[in-house]
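Sequence in, structure out.
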Amino acid sequence: MRTHAPIILFCYNRPGHLRQTVESLRMNTLAAESELFVYSDGPKNTADRQRVDEVRTYLAGVTGFRSVHVREAETNKGLANSVIEGVSFVLSQFPKVIVLEDDMLSTKDFLSFMNQALDTYASRDDIFSVTGYTPPIAVPGHYPHDVYLAPRASSWGWGTWADKWAEADWQVSDFVALKTDAAQRDAFNKGGNDLWPMLAKQQQGVIDSWAIRWTYSQFRTGAYGLYPVHSKIKNIGTDGTGTNFTFKSGEYGDELSEGAVTMPPDLRPDDGMIHAFGRYYRLPLLLKLKNKVKYGI
């Protein structure tokens, strides 16, 4: 009998968003059979303490899962450190995980989809991660499957396996070589031409992102992320309240789709899907110019 992947949920100081996320997750058909690990980050300052306390008061009463484990940080670790440490710890105990942040609404079959994907593609060396989210790309009319592969990892309602996570190079040890190799940078940017600028900013200390380093680790091994054609995750943190989302957008996850999904074990990358995916993440010209002038990217 296969066991369900444990769920890891990262939260900080948004009790309202967290409540919606947990309530949505609790309605999943596999929630009662799944263990939930919650990582509550500590306050950055005195002003944050009240909302962090509200989060923890709410978490103390969460039920509806096989078990609930809450980890409360005394000081603020930041999202990147929290994710790397938390996912690494849980994956030292389990072979696979499902990961969310505190601003994700899910369909009732999200956990079923994720567990199905984690089971189906566990042995595929060229698939490093799976996700229940898909951006609103223009799916080519010829594409026949319910899932697709893209050269990018998603940070919105995602999952991975212990052996794949162990391949991550959080220091990006070959960054200098990448910086001088235009062909490799172009190849990395197939998942969106925002990837190289994000990685460069990460290495310059401008941003602190686990996700761009995880995507780069995936790229270095020639691996892909698995996405559904129709999203099972909606982000509600694009209202400007999130740590890493500083703009509002009505574009993210408008479509949520329940229903059975067929997952071919021998699924292969599709050039049309990858092209459509990359186009969605194409940087606006003004931002490209800003990156060049301000950061030398």
